[in-house]
Amino acid sequence: MRFCNRLVCCIGFCFVSIFTLGMECQSAPDNNNNANNNDNTNDNTNVSNLVAVVTGIELHVQADIVAGDDVIAFGTGGFSGVQYVIPSANDTAGRDIPGGSNFVAGMINVVGKKIICYSSDFAAHVYDTETDTVEDVALNEVRLTNLPIGKAGRVTSGDGYVVVRCDDGEVDDGNQLKMIDVSDNTPVVVPFTSYPAGTSDFAHAAVDKTRNQVVAVDDEKLLFYDAANPDAAPTEVDTSTNMVNGQSNSVDNSVPIYADDGVVLFISSPDGLAFLYLVDSDSYVQLSTNRAGQADYTLRAGSYGIFLNEVADDSIGSDLRSGIGTVSSTEPTFADVEDLRFEGTTNGGAFGYGQEIEVTTDGGTWFICGSESIGSAETLQVSSGGKFVNVPDPAGVNELGVPATDVSISDNVIAFKSGAQQDTVVAYIILN
Q1: Domain count within the chain
Q2: Would you give the distance in Å from CA 195 to the centre of its chain?
Q3: Higher pLDDT, 87 or 294
Q4: How far apart are the first and last CA of the chain?
Q5: Would you give the DSSP letter of residue 33?
Q6: How far apart are CA 48 and CA 124, in angstroms?
Q7: In a domain, 412, yes or no
């Protein structure tokens, strides 16, 4: 990318100065002392149409739960076992997948009505819920680099395909980044064939569904591949030019990135700050002055969600302070540590504090919950852009709302774990 010598532009709250020494991002919001730059007092989020269904279908507390097109796939064991349910069918038991007991429980993708699973030999398998058939992808075409334990490095989903990182010494064509096209009855492996000189093993990749691009992380660089033209050379962006107070804040390749419509959300190294990279203006927007928490983030349809974890007010127990916003305004709304869910005590946490965040596919509604094991205050919260509120517990037992961790959202269903502590069950909300 080519930088102009003395171009100064204003993007929302962040003044971006581009010099020959790099790109300086300044004047991010001061997040200490609960400074909120937007009004988050709006509590008009409508929860009347959010009817949670808590099934008795058990899943493992550390396994994946992933929403698709009227499909929810989930892991049943500590290492292996995958089943699924169809919410519109009011399933009362998990549906089996042929060979599903051997598939990894902690890494699942759902594309439409197809479930992509992985086995301990690093192979990929595509299950069609409509035909009840499994297609195995040949190991000489796709042999995963690893089976990540955390979020970074996982297989990511596009429209009609997933993107996998392959062991280039084990696959016949020597390509490390590939798509598995699952749009037809038989999956087709499509490799990206161009790698700039000096390319190392990609840490992970994200899919920009809007622009049909795959964004791979190579050390401090972002590589933008065209999914419609996989033989084309990628566009390279060297994020080491992103400067904060005279210090480079490049992409941290140990944590995931998120991509949507020419925007990449990433956490920086070494300062651990949340940034947006704007492709069209070749510029960076710093979202916070506080360090970002090591949690799951979201970027969809022009809306994002992050967590902070630097000062005392950024956390209550294991829950972190959220910031939500839109790319068009860039300035996040941060949760207020004094906005307690139980008056006078932090036992119930605060509104807008959690460990997982997701936004609906239209970018209009954010959801926050806990992660994995379900504590008494880990429930589902929702916001339409202002203050978070509780999603009611259908059993009417928990006044903080329906217990929830690990939320996943598709066009027509919100999936999450419910239950208590280690005893987790499949739960969902059908979207109209």
Answers
A1: 1
A2: 26
A3: 87
A4: 43
A5: G
A6: 40
A7: yes
